[in-house]
Structures are given as structure tokens and as C-alpha cells.
Amino acid sequence: MTAPALRTLTTDQAHASIDKLTVIDVRTPGEYASGHLPGAHNIPLDQIPRALPALKDAASRADLLVVCASGARSENAAKTLTARGVPATTLTGGTNAWAQHGLDLHHPQACDVPKTVWGMERQVRLTAGIIVLLGLALGLLHPAFQLISAAIAGGLVFSALTNTCGMAAVLAKLPHNRPRPADLDATLNALRS
User: Fold this and answer.
1) Measured distance CA(121)–CA(115) in Å, rounded
2) Burial of residue 69, with CB atoms counted within 10 A of its CB: 0-12 exposed, 13-18 middle, 19 or more buried
3) pLDDT per residue as tens digits for the range 104-130
4) What contacts 134, CB < 8 A, 6 or more positions away?
5) pLDDT per position in the chain (193 positions), as tens?
């Protein structure tokens, strides 16, 4: 049996129907706090399984639009939801496309997430760059250390080919990228009601 085709909305389509959609932002809390679609609920990608009952409730009342920065994480989340019987649509190009079209992003006024939290793509670039430089520097002591840099290069190629990112999954587990349990519980309660 083949999986159902992934449904997508363009920025114009999403903007035209934003009031009729339940928007789920699957980025980290820091990324979400830096600006998100109006009315979006933050449920990080790795919390989707925990949020499944609340998402089913929400999907019974309105169509789900899953968003992230560029569309890769939201595509993974939408596939997960669809496979579990929850219809979900993604925003082509994510919040980056939304902002590039000149549409407003909501910025929480009172948010405990520091403004200095970088987006996940920026965190990945920094981490990969540091590890590559470290591998090259240690390679001056012994050539075998250059394998560290080669491993990161291979991981980046694999990431591009599969549209996944293992390093982002690891970085998402750092404390500054995690939702506080009370925040996630409040979001799940809001989706249920």
C-alpha cells in the first residue's frame, strides 16, 4: 500500500485561509520565539508523538497546517501525522517563505526564551564548522584526526540527499532548544479545547 500524497499549501493559499487553520510550528522554542505565523502553536518535531491525541482533537475541528523554518521538518511531521491517521498539510517554504512574502510574523511580547537563541540551521552550521576546524587542527598532530572532518562532510552530504539532519536532532535536545514541560502542556490543552 502506498502512503497518501503529502498535501502542501503555498504562502498565498495559507495566508488566505489562516483563520480556518490550526497552525502547528514544529521548530524549537527559541526559533518559534524569534517569529512565527499568527496563531501558531509550538510543538517541537520530537514531541509530535506525545502530542498526537491533542493533534487528533484539533484536526477534527480544523485543518492542520504544519510549519517550520524551510519546510523539511514540517514535511517530516506531516508524514508522521498522516501515517497515524491525522490529516496534515505543510507550508511550502515554511516561515522563511512567509516572511519573504512580506507577511507578518508574530513575536511574543513576554517570552522566557532568550532572543540570543539561534535558528536550528545556524546552530548546525556553527557546530559543523567547529568540528571540521577541530578535525583539521588536530590533523596537524596526527593525520588520522582529519577523518573527523571527513565524517562531518559525509554527514552533510547525506543530510542534503535525504533531507534529514541528524545533527539538528541532537542539537534540538540541548536545554535552550527544549520547551518547558508547562509550556508544552499548555499548548496541548489549548489544542484540545
Assistant:
1) 16
2) buried
3) 898 775 544 445 567 788 888 999 999
4) 148
5) 455 668 999 999 999 999 999 999 999 888 888 889 999 999 999 899 999 999 999 999 999 999 999 888 999 999 999 999 999 999 999 999 999 999 989 877 554 444 556 778 888 899 999 999 999 999 999 999 999 999 999 999 998 888 778 888 888 888 877 767 668 888 888 888 7
Distance CA 166, CA 125 (A): 13
Residue 168 makes CB contacts below 8 A (sequence gap 6+) with 120, 121, 123, 124
Cell triple for 58: 484539533
d(CA 55, CA 88): 10
Name 106's bridge partners.
36
**Interatomic CA distance for residues 192 and 183, integer angstroms:** 14
- The amino acid that residue 162 corresponds to is T
Strands 7-9, 21-25: pairing is: unpaired
pLDDT in tens, 85-97: 999 999 999 999 9
Rounded Cα distance, 60 and 36, in Å: 23
21: phi then psi, degrees, rounded to nearest 5? -110, 150
Residue type, 186: A
| Amino acid letter, residue 113 | V
